[in-house]
Amino acid sequence: MERFHGALTALVTPFIDGKLDEQGLVDLIEYQIAGGIHGIVPCGTTGESATLDFDEHKRVIDITVKTVAGRVPVIAGTGANSTSEAIELTESAKKSGADAVLSVVPYYNKPNQEGIYRHFKAIAEAVDIPMFLYNVPGRTVIHVLPETVARLAQIPTIIGIKEACGDLGQISDVIRLCPAEFIVVSGDDFSAMPTIFIGGKGVISVVSNVDPGGMARVMEAALAGDSVGARDGHYRLFPLMRLMFKTPSPGPAKKALQLIGRMKDSEPRLPMTGPDEATTELLRLELQRLGMI
């Protein structure tokens, strides 16, 4: 498996009574690696980065890097809608020893394409570390357009993009316009398999929190050109993928981890809440079907 390819987990952040559960984080990382995951992505949206303060954010990345200890790549979430804050978090991730960073398109303030370009260019010029862009218009409102991605791909340290637009046409344009070595990974589980078959290299996954081995096998099959194996693995996990977003993420992922005995306290931080009783029961039934409980 090449570096930064395959199934990379958008890792949830464990809390106990609202406070960072450091041992729980270590245990969760070990579960991921034992399951055969290809990389770890702490402090993304699924890691509740929006409600981590700066010290907690830096601590989660530091613990992740130390626990992983080089066994798989660590791509640290360091994005912000303030360029100076994104630079500060990126500098901290580099000090911690992260292999790369993931930087989201600025949210809420709605910059134009030139503003997006200058934002990422400023981060890349300030900190010498491999960077993945992160396009998730469902959360940020705006897209980074394929033409802007192609401009940014000319910057040597901007090596790829997590593309969560849900549009295979747009993903195709990114792949078509960018250099061959530019790494495009899916930003959601549903489009992961087809993204590989149009030239992508993997996924930053939510469902792999719960079943790292299952998602890793889907990506390995797809990257090997085994369309039947990839399709079978995709449909095996598809109902669980759906449930990961039945109520706001990461609530269902954390509840599923609690149900399989991998997390003590599944409550996310407000304003996020855990899944309702009906969703919890659906999760329980699906995990039983998969043989995980």
Automatic annotation (TrEMBL):
Pyruvate binds at residues 46, 204. It comes from Desulfofustis limnaeus. Catalyzes the condensation of (S)-aspartate-beta-semialdehyde [(S)-ASA] and pyruvate to 4-hydroxy-tetrahydrodipicolinate (HTPA). The keyword Transmembrane helix does not apply. Pfam families: DHDPS. Its EC number is 4.3.3.7. The gene is dapA. It comes from the Bacteria. The active site is at 134 (proton donor/acceptor), 162 (schiff-base intermediate with substrate). PROSITE patterns: DHDPS_1, DHDPS_2. It is found in: Cytoplasm. Pathway: Amino-acid biosynthesis; L-lysine biosynthesis via DAP pathway; (S)-tetrahydrodipicolinate from L-aspartate: step 3/4. Keywords: Amino-acid biosynthesis, Cytoplasm, Diaminopimelate biosynthesis, Lyase, Lysine biosynthesis, Schiff base. It catalyses: L-aspartate 4-semialdehyde + pyruvate = (2S,4S)-4-hydroxy-2,3,4,5-tetrahydrodipicolinate + H2O + H(+). This is 4-hydroxy-tetrahydrodipicolinate synthase. The keyword Lyase applies. The record marks 45, 108 as: Part of a proton relay during catalysis. HAMAP family: DapA. InterPro entries: Aldolase_TIM, DapA, DapA-like, Schiff_base-form_aldolases_AS, Schiff_base-form_aldolases_CS. Belongs to the DapA family. Homotetramer; dimer of dimers.
